[in-house]
Amino acid sequence: MQPIDSGEAATLIAALLEGDPKRGIVDFGGPEAMTMGEAADAWLADRGVRKRIRRMPIPGRVGKALAEGVLCTDDHSGTITWGDWLRAHPKEAS
Hints:
Blueprint: H1 6-18, H2 36-47, H3 60-67, H4 82-88
């Protein structure tokens, strides 16, 4: 996956809405690609939670597509990394 900050996503969507009408899908994403496990590990580490995450493969075509990066794009429009986002949000909110 390629997490993107919600504020950056909103800015990109607003810019698309103000521009010329386009057909099709516009891809954009955060500055880094990672697995869901990596994102969860970072969240736990940032919050000081000492729990293990059980890794379970996703079977079938969905699992294959995820492994091939279907949730990622070459357009790294966002600039705020997952780690930056974690540090910017209070640990008490988790």
